[in-house]
Amino acid sequence: MKNKQPKKAALYCRLSVDDGRMGESVSIGSQKLLLEQYCKDHAIDNYEVYDDDGYSGTNFDRPAFQRMFEDIQNGLIDTVLVKDQSRFGRSYIEVGMYVEKFKELGVRFIAVSDNYDSMKNENDMMFPMRNVLNDYFAREASIKTKTAKKAKAKAGQYIGSKPPFGYKLDPNDRHHLVIDEPAAETVRRIFRMAAQGIGFNRTTKIFREEKVLTPIAYFNLHNPDYFKSDYWRREFDWHVTSIRVILENEVYLGKLVYGKRKNVSMKSKKKVFCPREEWIIVENCHEPIISQELWDDAHRMMSVKRRATKTGEFQIFAGHLYCADCGHALTYSQKQRRDGTYHGAYSCWLYKTHGKEYCASHYINYDVIYDIVLKDMRRVLKSYRKNKDEFRAFLNNKSSGISSQRIVQLKTELKKSQGRIEELNHLLNKLYEDNVLGKLTDNRYVQMSNRFEKELHELMESVSRINEELNKYSFQNNETEKFTKIIDQYTDIKELDSEIINELIDKILVHHKEEIDGNTYQQVEIYYKFVGNLNRTAQNAA
Predict the structure, then answer these.
(1) Are 191 and 294 spatial neighbours (Cβ–Cβ below 8 Å)?
(2) What is the CA radius of gyration of the chain?
(3) Cα separations (Å) of 85 from 80, 100, 132, 370?
(4) Which residue, 317, 375, 374, is CA-closest to 347?
(5) How far apart, in whole angstroms, are the C-alpha atoms of residue 540 and residue 542?
(6) Would you state the torsion angle of the CA atoms of residues 534, 293, 218, 260, taken in this order, to the nearest 10 degrees?
(7) Of 237, 191, 187, 188, whose CA–CA distance to 211 is shortest?
(8) 91: exposed, middle or buried (Cβ count in 10 Å: 0-12, 13-18, 19+)
(9) Does the pTM exceed 0.70?
(10) Would you write out the chain's pLDDT as a tens digit for each of its 542 residues?
(11) Least buried of 104, 178, 477, 529, by fewest C-beta within 10 Å?
(12) Residues 6 or more apart in contact with residue 416 via CB below 8 angstroms
């Protein structure tokens, strides 16, 4: 059945983000005013405005345009008016295609500022030329926009419209991020849980049960008019993807990362991932939410395949046990005893996969490694509690190879050398003045200045060596402070869990069993975070 409604004119207006920089002359309001004045001058009373504000002209995937075209196909529109061809679109192929479709459907197309009327200018050669020029302009604008964004990114300026979860835009500088503390604490918790070996699925389940707001729901809480759809209303519906995106975002280390993805082409919305070497990464752009150590711990645990045992538990040593010979991880296996309990043990992955030609088994019982690590942790903690200053001095001396007495000696030498350098520079200046004033002969000046220059060069080399040695000590001192800050939290350790192991242990090397004086022993090396192996290598009598 044919539509009996009187046909109307469609006033189509469009403005992209980049067009907005051109000023008021192309604004939606000015376009609408121009087209309404045209209708008034030409006695067009029945019309409707269709406007796409913030949409690119490089394609026709725009809501208002699609609604207008649907009305055209339903026979509701007989005329389409635009300010100029560039407001209609910048793709010369698609513009021409749609204008031809309009003709087929008996719809008149008018571009007011271009003086184009499909009813009067059917053979106007400038129409396709303007389409080509508009397409060229769109490509040039796209290149300039990308170049400007890259320049801002290289300068460490944040250019996104919506800040990452955990941050908000600085009210004094929208290109700078500041920490949004409530959201930031959720981010820290996600990283801590990952470092403890808690998987993505379990994390989402915990957050749902605790009714933790999702990133999109949290953002909408502070920006209630931002989202047009109601998807955000599923406030606590955390997904694995959300967790993964947060854990892989280096913005939480204080970095700005730009260019991870790019559009397939100017006219396509489809994006593809770029190789890391093409990214723009700028350090120290804003305050980090997490430390590099927490990031490393989380990503190390993420790289470990963690499968639940038959009892539904995850191994607390996952990601920490390694073969001392080939370097591969030790894999866990579990067998059920006759009484129904389970017996667990570790062995070298390379041996289990490829056989004894590649490595030995390095078999060790779960209960044995648990006992060794627990005893060594308690030993370290007891030593620290007994005399903290002595323990710190031991750690610094152990790793840097520099005693406290040597530190005092180095600082004394440094002060003395720096004083002499200052004195020599003064003497060289005085020699030069005396030579210029004729108080010192050229030969005498050369002899003395050469001697002073040689001494100055030797002192500069000495200062460089001293600073290098002191910097090594300073670095180790920082590492010592990091470790002691962790163990300060514990008065004693009664039992092990994944949190304690992830916090204190870097890696554990398990050697193959060997015979010593008729007895079988197995060596285990425990490396602690920041400070390494604390010397007392455990021996397990097998």
Answers:
(1) yes
(2) 36
(3) 12, 14, 11, 75
(4) 317
(5) 6
(6) -150
(7) 237
(8) buried
(9) no
(10) 445 678 899 999 988 766 555 444 468 888 899 899 999 999 999 999 999 988 887 788 889 999 999 999 999 999 999 988 888 887 767 787 888 899 889 999 998 888 888 887 665 555 556 556 555 555 665 566 566 667 777 777 888 778 999 999 998 888 889 999 999 999 999 999 888 878 888 899 999 999 999 998 888 888 776 665 555 556 788 988 889 999 999 999 998 888 777 665 545 556 677 787 878 888 888 999 999 988 988 888 887 655 555 555 567 888 889 999 999 989 888 877 777 667 789 999 999 888 889 999 999 999 999 999 999 999 999 999 999 888 888 887 775 556 667 777 888 888 999 999 999 999 999 988 888 888 889 898 899 989 999 999 999 998 888 888 777 777 777 788 888 888 888 888 999 988 888 888 989 999 999 888 888 889 999 999 888 888 654 455 55
(11) 104
(12) none
Instruction: Give the integer Cα–Cα distance in Å for 366 and 311.
Output: 15
Q: Please provide residue 520's backbone torsions phi and psi, each rounded to the nearest 5 degrees.
A: -100, 125
**Tokens encoding 251:** 């913005």
Integer angstrom CA distances of residue 57 from 113, 127, 267, 517: 17, 17, 9, 84
DSSP-derived letter for residue 58 is S
The single-letter code of the amino acid at 229 is S
**CA–CA distance, 439 with 433 (Å, rounded to integer):** 8
Structure tokens at 234: 């599923």
Q: Do 330 and 346 meet the contact criterion of CB atoms below 8 Å apart?
A: yes
How many of the other CB atoms lie within 10 Å of CB of 271? 11
Structure tokens at 164: 């990452």
Pairing type for strands 505-510 and 514-516 reads unpaired
Question: H or E element: which one contains 31?
Answer: helix 28-41
Residues listed for the chain: 542
